[in-house]
Fold:
Amino acid sequence: MLLRARCPSPVQDSVELIRRREVTRVLRKMNASPDEEEAIERLSQLLVTKLLLGPISEAMTHTEI
Structure:
């Protein structure tokens, strides 16, 4: 996950685990080409990163001294 490189946290680890499980589940049901699988993987990473950016930034703002 893109945010992970900057500031890994238990929440990010948990969300990444859920993301991977769901992508794997969906890909098993599809007859996707390797390119399609890569696109789905990348899309899911980008969505999770964008969804977590605001809450993580907000939390970091409140925890900085």
Residues 34-63 form the longest helix (30 residues). The two ends are 27 Å apart (CA to CA). Helices lie at 10-29, 34-63.
